[in-house]
Amino acid sequence: MDFKAHIAARVKVGELTQEEIYAMIALPPNTEMGDFALPCFRLAKTMRKAPALIAQEIADSYPEDEIVSKVSALNGYVNFKIDRAFWAKQTLERIFAEREGYGSSDEGKGKTVCIDYSSVNIAKPFHIGHLSTTVLGSALYKLHKFLGYTPVGINHLGDYGTQFGKLISAYKRWGKKEDIEQGGLRALNALYVRFHEEAEKDPSLNDEARAFFKKIEDKDEESVALFNWFKELTLKDVGRIYELLDVHFDSWAGESFYNDKMQPVVDELREKGLLKESEGAQIVDLEEYGMPPCIILRSDGASLYATRDIAAAIYRKNTYDFYKCLYVVAYQQNLHFKQFFKVLELMGKDWAKDLIHVAYGMVSLEDGSMSTRKGKVVYLEDVIQKCVQKAGDIIAEKNPSLENREQIARTVGVGAVIFGALYNNKIKDITFSYDKVLNFEGETSCYVQYTCARANSVLEKGGRGGKYTVCEVLDQEYELVKKLADFPATLHDALEKYEPCFVARYAVDLSQLFNKFYFDCSILNAGDENIRNFRLALTEATLITLTNALKLLGIGVPEKM
């Protein structure tokens, strides 16, 4: 139930509408004051009364109500307390009715949202730097689907450019088919690194690489076959990582897919008088918008990222008729997105306003940065496997007799990697720490998963789905109820602000409240059967809600730990 709407409909404040009152209602800083509060300070001028007097008049005139148990005025605020038993009963009824669908809605019904994320480069390592875009995009995909939207996950593969000419050159000079088949992406990356080392000594290799890439563009049979082989090896390698992370896509259309779709973009820009020549290049001048020019074609006639991204945006609109199109890309590309969004707007595409750059910070390990060209790369798969191994060691120490230890270690380790990337606001840079993400007592997925295992253990002993009666609700129980009730609103806020961290933090907060309840309120030995059954119901509702929260982040929940 929307208690704010219930209160707003029953409060009378001068000429204010119900919607205006609703917008004013807030959460008080101290829950002892009330569950909701209406500040009256902004009303003083129009009503020509002191805020304290206005608050008292509103409190006195509030009609008798079985849902709001108490209304009081204090220091210019009207405080409303909701009947605890009513709130608990309603919250539990909804959770048990909806179960794995609790928190979902149909707010996005009929709306398609394209989400461009991960976007790995063919024949380049899937490294720790790809972590944020991959898990952030995946969480946004799951959130949109859960709230009724039709998401389209797009992996805009980096499968176009001179680097493929470099790889063909390197492979023909130093590569062996059996070595590449066996070594996959790592073997390809070793060739790429060697090419750059050799090209520093012999710059003519770069000319050879450009020539090989031209052969790919000209559909030379041998060069295209090698390129497709590199692509196949890459997708096989990254597919294994996507499976580990529970990440899925609906489209794998990469840069090369738009090769035949760029000329119409150039023609349209020219027809609309937007193209200008500058030092031989074709540009769209964005000076009056405070940006450098957007280069559409280089002086040699080659296209750039902007050209392909404009073509891709037009294709996606024509194909999916999206409500929004999200680009989950690091903040270093802020200017690029501002530029090509503005170009589409100048082209008269009224849907350009629906293009959203979901910018995020960088991820690095504690020992520093990376360089693909120099071979200093931290493979994401290695990070995941190290977390799985460390999780296994911790579990073996804490619970040596645990069954399915390897599977549980995998669930915990993978969850730690995902949660570590999603717990903070997306724009923050992250220094990834194995010890921090695997802390069973910190603000981590391990802590949340352990809480789920604890709740599951209680339910195995006490039973699930039993009948309960809500009578007196203690403070610890009430705080838990309120947090459980807040889950749908948290998901709405997370989606509205493109911040899965809201879901991650909610899961930690709910876990902390449940553990306080677990230690303060006896569940299995409550004595009174009604109290015992009510507390078991709270435990089951918590497990359902935490499981839903983690699932939306792509994280599994082991039954035991």
Walkthrough of the structure:
The structure is a single chain. This protein has helices at residues 3-10, 18-24, 44-47, 51-61, 84-98, 131-146, 162-174, 177-201, 204-217, 221-245, 263-271, 305-320, 334-346, 380-398, 405-422, 434-437, 445-462, 475-485, 487-496, 501-520, 529-553, and strands spanning 36-39, 68-74, 77-82, 112-116, 150-154, 275-278, 281-284, 294-297, 324-330, 355-360, 363-365, 430-432. Helix 8 packs across helix 10, helix 12 crosses helix 13 and helix 17 (445-462) crosses helix 20 (501-520). The chain is built from 21 helices and 12 strands. The protein is of the alpha/beta class and 561 residues long. The chain has 4 domains: 3-82, 2-Layer Sandwich (Gyrase A, domain 2), CATH 3.30.1360.70; 116-268 and 302-365, Rossmann fold (3-Layer(aba) Sandwich); 269-301, no CATH class; 380-553, Isoleucyl-tRNA Synthetase, Domain 1. Helices cover 54% and strands 10% of the residues. The strands form 4 sheets. It has a 4-stranded parallel β-sheet with strand order 5-4-9-10, sandwiched between helices. Strand 6 and strand 7 (281-284) form a beta hairpin. The model has no long low-confidence stretch (mean pLDDT 92). The longest helix has 25 residues, at 177-201.
